[in-house]
Design brief:
The protein has helices spanning about 5-20, 40-45, 65-75, 95-105, 125-135, 165-180, and strands at about 30, 40, 50-55, 80-85, 115, 145-150, 155-160. By secondary structure, it is of the alpha/beta class. The strands form 2 sheets. Strands 5-4-3-6-7 form a 5-stranded mixed β-sheet, with helices on one face.
């Protein structure tokens, strides 16, 4: 048997190793907001620092989309990804995904990944937010922000009142990113 015959076997054996680094709570696909396209968090954001936020388009904190976009623009090429989880858990999401998408994309110019409405609290919470509640605390309102290391560990939790582009959040992001450069 020559090397060409071993190649498929090697790929088969190495495939589980590629997924071994992805924590279970980041596995799975989530549909993009107002789209049929899905995002696999493990594949799409592998090795990146994540800023995960639960959002709602009719909340008093909705203006934080601007700050989230600023953080995304500033750090996307340095290893950070911002991921927004649309949710109606606090009864402040738009009635339709089209309206929620309009608020995000047209009103605030969001270019970071926004996902279709999903539960982020209680027994119905998606697997990521169930784990965030275990490692930190569940969102008490819209626009809670969680900074996750590439291994899925919560590095910091910022409640709704903390602006995403505040010195507090930026310092935490930069501290982690700078530590990776060392």
């Amino acid at each position: 048997m020559n090397a060409r015959h071993y190649f498929p076997l090697v790929l088969l054996l190495l495939a589980p190793l590629a997924w071994a680094s992805c924590p279970p709570h980041l596995e799975g696909e989530y549909r993009r907001l107002h789209s049929t396209e899905s995002v696999d968090l493990c594949q799409h954001f592998e090795g990146r620092l994540l800023l995960v936020v639960n959002t709602a388009s009719h909340c008093g904190f909705t203006r934080q989309f601007e700050g989230l976009e600023a953080v995304h623009q500033r750090y996307q090429d340095k290893g950070l990804a911002v991921v927004g989880f649309s949710s109606n858990d606090f009864n402040q999401e738009a009635d339709s995904e089209a309206e929620a998408a309009s608020v995000c994309y047209e009103n605030f110019g969001v270019t970071f990944t926004m996902l279709a409405p999903t539960a982020v609290t209680g027994d119905q919470a998606n697997p990521l937010f169930r784990e965030l509640a275990v490692q930190s605390e569940p969102p008490g309102w819209n626009f809670n922000k969680y900074l996750l290391s590439p291994d899925g560990s919560v590095l910091a939790h910022f409640d709704s009142r903390v602006e995403p582009d505040s010195e507090t959040v930026m310092t935490k992001i930069e501290t982690w990113l700078n530590a990776q450069d060392d």
